[in-house]
């Protein structure tokens, strides 16, 4: 059953077309990746499906609802972690989680989230004193504290060290195991290959492919006569680059 | 939603109290300045004919109150809001059912409360340490205080609205802060203010607030001009702030 259905999505800012024609569907319980170069329209796409901006054209249905019309209802059901969304410097970890839990009608148990995300030891720490990885985990916790059906996570692991990235991956899988559908925006191919059931590749505001990572790899192997292609090769081919050998 | 708004206000109050600069400069400083003026400057506690038989300290209480309003409104508030926008705090709230408008409301409430505490402290110090009388025209004083605070908060919101970054908001705040204090009479108090300067001061929100509070102190109801100027800034700056404010 599709949880998110997007077809022919369009959005422009003044003269700039951010999203020209994006279509994909996300099924319940999937980890769905959105890949693409910087400025391809990934973030705009997730902002449109989260109801943070209004689209210029196309249709969007999230859990059967239109984000432009039923935004208030969707904010109860969709947890969003956007790029560069921080917290006040002096807020404590537990304060932030408790506060955000009061925003929702049926919140998750924030104390349990604190444990699950390995933040119990830092519950009284101020946001300003957290490491990059801890900030990201708190950010995920805040996206999950409303007990959402869908979690949208934008460039979650950018700027994290390898160990923190691996921890975050494990976390995303555990989120999915809780029954949450995950939309993951990333430009790390290893991340997408490891985590995502299916991915959409967006280039210059258009979806150029929607498939499983394995299928995209198989296709590029067949088309370019390669033996051991990676998702990165497939991605480069799809976004109009030469594949270096 | 009531719980969310209450929690938001409680958390914003805690954050305000953890910010030593806002507490010291915004809440404590007006009372401390009054103590310094009264005890450290010779002649501040002696009546003089220049001030129609009042003591300088009497004249300075309403001026210090204007300073209390000025610090929270154009220094603390715009920096907070612009920082919240720059760090994406408002953007994150926009993804939740609560939304960023309520955070704006909580900030206004917390800074408003901070201003009132600063005012109460300064009046208490004036009364207890120097025997300064309470305002004789109480309703007029309260109207001047509330309307003056509201007008200056509207100016603060406008600064937060037009400043692209937190540093810019702080900078613009400072550019507004010192002229405002000047027009409020910090350097040329009450009867000592030259006529031309007073006419300019009449037309600034803090100058109007300062003079309206001074009038109420000596028993007169604030003048229609001062009330109109404060109301005018409240409406105009408020409308412009609402027009130009961006959540990200």
TrEMBL record, chain A:
InterPro entries: AAA+_ATPase, ABC_transporter-like_ATP-bd, ABC_transporter-like_CS, ABC_transporter_ATP-binding, P-loop_NTPase. Keywords: Antibiotic resistance, ATP-binding, Nucleotide-binding, Transport. It comes from the Bacteria. GO terms for molecular function: ATP binding. SMART domains: AAA (SM00382). Residues 4-229 form the ABC transporter domain. Its main location: membrane. It is a peripheral membrane protein. It is found in: Cell membrane. CDD domains: ABC_DR_subfamily_A. It holds the Pfam family ABC_tran. This is ABC transporter ATP-binding protein. It comes from Phytohabitans maris.
From TrEMBL, chain B:
Keywords: Antibiotic resistance, Cell membrane, Membrane, Transmembrane, Transmembrane helix, Transport. It is a multi-pass membrane protein. Its main location: membrane. Coiled coil: none annotated. The keyword Signal does not apply. Belongs to the ABC-2 integral membrane protein family. This is Transport permease protein.
């Amino acid at each position: 059953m599709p949880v998110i259905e997007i077809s022919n999505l369009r959005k422009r800012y003044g003269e700039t077309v951010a999203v020209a024609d994006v279509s994909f569907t996300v099924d319940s319980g999937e980890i769905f990746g959105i890949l693409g170069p910087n400025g391809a329209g990934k973030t705009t796409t997730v902002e449109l499906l989260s109801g943070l901006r209004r689209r210029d054209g196309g249709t969007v249905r999230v859990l059967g609802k239109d984000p432009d019309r039923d935004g208030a209802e969707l904010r109860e059901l969709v947890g969003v972690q956007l790029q560069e969304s921080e917290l006040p410097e002096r807020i404590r970890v537990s304060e932030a989680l408790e506060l955000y839990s009061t925003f929702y009608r049926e919140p998750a148990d924030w104390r349990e989230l604190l444990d699950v995300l390995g933040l119990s030891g830092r519950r009284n720490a101020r946001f300003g004193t957290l490491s990059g990885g801890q900030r990201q985990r708190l950010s995920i916790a805040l996206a999950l504290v409303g007990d959402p059906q869908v979690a949208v996570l934008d460039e979650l692991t950018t700027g994290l060290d390898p160990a923190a990235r691996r921890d975050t991956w494990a976390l995303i899988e555990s989120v999915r195991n809780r029954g949450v559908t995950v939309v993951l925006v990333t430009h790390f191919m290893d991340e997408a290959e490891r985590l995502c059931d299916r991915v959409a590749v967006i280039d210059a505001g258009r979806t150029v492919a929607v498939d499983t990572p394995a299928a995209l790899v198989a296709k590029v192997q067949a088309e370019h006569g390669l033996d051991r292609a990676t998702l990165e090769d497939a991605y480069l081919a799809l976004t109009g680059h030469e594949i270096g050998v | 939603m009531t719980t969310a708004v209450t929690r938001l206000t409680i958390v914003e109050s805690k954050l305000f109290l953890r910010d030593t600069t806002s507490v010291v400069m915004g809440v404590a400083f007006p009372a401390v300045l009054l103590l310094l003026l009264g005890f450290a400057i010779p002649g501040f506690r002696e009546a003089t004919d220049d001030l129609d038989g009042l003591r300088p300290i009497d004249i300075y209480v309403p001026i210090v109150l204007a300073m209390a309003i000025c610090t929270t409104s154009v220094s603390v508030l715009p920096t907070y809001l612009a920082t919240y926008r720059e760090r994406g705090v408002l953007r994150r709230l926009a993804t939740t059912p609560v939304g960023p408008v309520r955070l704006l409301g909580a900030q206004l409430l917390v800074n408003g409360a901070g201003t009132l505490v600063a005012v109460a402290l300064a009046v208490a110090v004036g009364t207890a340490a120097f025997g300064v009388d309470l305002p004789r025209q109480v309703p007029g004083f309260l109207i001047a205080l509330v309307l003056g605070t509201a007008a200056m908060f509207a100016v603060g919101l406008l600064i937060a609205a037009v400043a692209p970054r937190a540093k810019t908001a702080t900078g613009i705040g400072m550019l507004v802060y010192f002229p405002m204090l000047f027009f409020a009479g910090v350097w040329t108090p009450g009867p000592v203010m030259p006529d031309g300067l007073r006419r300019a001061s009449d037309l600034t929100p803090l100058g109007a607030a300062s003079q309206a509070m001074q009038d109420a102190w000596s028993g007169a109801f604030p003048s229609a001009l001062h009330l109109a100027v404060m109301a005018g800034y409240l409406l105009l700056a408020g409308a412009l702030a609402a027009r130009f404010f961006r959540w990200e």
